Amino acid sequence: MKNIFTNHPNSIGETYFQHFLKSMSFGIKLIFIGFRAFIHAVLPWCYEYSVSEYVYKLNQTLQNRKKSVNK
């Protein structure tokens, strides 16, 4: 029987718990990036470049993970 909780994590070489922790860390980072973006919208001099830099870094991390899985 196909287990919907482990199918995807196993397909990328992770256990359910490893995938849970990694996904949670990305989610928390995205929440903080979002807060910075809202603050920047109201106070444009705050976090002038940090939001785009964090998004770029997070994207690089995700792309590197994708490349390592697709080897």
Topology:
Layout: H1 7-11, H2 16-42, H3 50-69
Helix pairs in contact: 2-3
Could you characterize the architecture of this molecule?
This protein has helices at residues 7-11, 16-42, 50-69. Helices cover 73% and strands 0% of the residues. The chain has one domain (7-69). Helix 2 runs antiparallel to helix 3 (50-69). The longest helix is centred in the middle third of the chain and has 27 residues, at 16-42. The protein is mainly alpha-helical and 71 residues long. The two termini are 27 Å apart.
Compute the number of strand runs: 0
Estimated share of beta-strand residues? under 5%
Number of domains: 1
- First-to-last CA distance: 27 Å
**How many H/I helices?**
3
Given as residue ranges, the uncertain stretches (5+ residues, pLDDT < 50) are: none
Keywords summarizing the entry:
71 residues, mainly alpha, 3 helices, 73% helix, elongated
In short:
This protein has 3 helices and no strands.
